Amino acid sequence: MERSGRLGVGIIGAGRVGPILGAALAGAGHAIVGISAVSQQSRDRAEAVLPGVPILAIPEIIERSELVILAVPEAELASLVSGLAATGAWQPGQLVLHTAAPWGTGILAPATAQGVIPLAIHPAMAFTGTSIDLVRLRDSFFAVTAPRAVQPIGQALVVEMGAEPILVDEADRPAWAEAIAIATSFSAAIVAQATEALSAIGIEAPGSILAPLVRASVDNALARATPTTIDLGSLLHPDEPEDLS
């Protein structure tokens, strides 16, 4: 499957993820045709990360885009896709990409039935929603789930954003999501607890003190981690994945 190198990209969702992925694709030469944003905070974020990109209504974004990025909260994704399908908004041949960790392309079935090309791409990265994320993309990995013929498109988009693609089967997406959630929530909880303990004894700027220790500890743990020493089955619990959008 071959497509022209330059795509008109529309982004639905101006949370922490959507604008950053848009900026990364713009840096690779794609044209960002519009982004949806509801709250003032999301509008401000969109304008800061994607200056000059128009804020448009969702149907207009879909009408203008060759690639639609759905960077919305996980709980809203299914209803958004099916609702737009009910209005006949999706366009045959259009690439539709969602960023929700737990699901592959099955959740895009209502759009796929109308002829779109489905992609599920999830970044294993904690986003801030600021330009610093564009630098962090270079050291990150993205799960790519798509029909076999479409996998090269997903991989190419990830590479263009500066990250490393990893193919993850549809059935394995829940395990991927749980692993990411464990790593994110565990590290955040431990840092918060240690920071509060230092603050309680009058230590100023505890985060600066803990930063090199935490980084070294994580590096050491990752260096020791191998498939034979980690039992993922015992680690994966049904915790709610972090909403990246």
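That was protein one. Protein two is written in the same sequence-then-structure order:
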Amino acid sequence: MKILIIGGGMGGTILANNLARRLTNEMKSGKARITMLSASDKHMYQPGLLYLALGRITPDELYRDQASLLEAGINFHVDPVTDFMLDNNQVKTKSGKIFDYDILVIATGSRMFPEGIPGMTEGSETFYTEESAVKMLKRLQSFEGGKVVISVGVPHKCPMAPLEITFMLHDYFKDRGMSDKVQLHYTYPIGRVHSLENVAKWAAPEMDKLGITYETFFNTKEVDVENKILRSEEGFEVKYDLLINIPAHKGMEVLEKNGLGANGWIPTNRTKLNMEGRTNVFVCGDTTNIPISKAGSTAHFEADTLGENIAAMVKMGIPVREYDGKVFCFIEAGKDRATYAMFNYLTPPDPKAPTKAVHWFKMAYNKLYWVSARGLL
């Protein structure tokens, strides 16, 4: 059986390794073959970009060679897919090669889309790529004071990122002795400061305590770069001296071009994780249209489910479990305090008071990520 995984991020890497260990005998006998196609020979630890933007790590700490993270026997090619020919169980790559499959997993991730709002690209700073994170760090270092506005678009990758960057900026300016020179102002598109109600109930008092102001029902319409004004669809305006943007995201462009889903989000069964209407095409991580957090842990737990199911399909012809919507997210509440949110389809999160212990656990995970990517954690 030919198993083809598209994408070498968190979800695709964990799944490939999970399957390689479960199907060792089948791979040796030729009954199963695992192939991964990626757009890059490097693997990035994406949560590290937040720390890069604040000068806490350097760019080289974000990367490993993708091949070094994969189990022996996985056929790895840096050759991104350009065409999905699902009716023929085939994909075509940039090099012109055709790859056949019996089971296809699409784990291509997502991309930020600040250009969807006029003026946002040129008028704001963000941290969702290495280049933009370094640019943001340089801008912060030269900032001498004023109103810092954090603008949040949806959907976006990493659900806690807006809160984390807000709290971490508070401590960043405090450490620089600028607390009296900087006003942090947070905007969010719905009627509370986070989409998850219990997270919002925790976060709003934290902001109040730190003197961070916030404005809800604020869906950014445009950025007036010349006058430094943020305007909302609701008709409100906010002036800023420095604009930090959590940009709305889309799925990868190749998925849009192939008509696999609106804005690149593939319609996905929320428990079976198959593409709607396809029994041999599965979706993992950010790429799904499932209305849960687009987070590394989501991809991890989905990959665990798919690993069990695809291995069972190879061995027995049937899947054996369902994905329950499990997500686990750390929430940095400053430079040295953190809490976490753990939830699934049925159980909402219940974040506790931030502690130094949870922060250091998060710091340890930053190092252990590479073990996690191997599917060993």
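The chain has a mean pLDDT of 96. Keep this in mind for the problem set.
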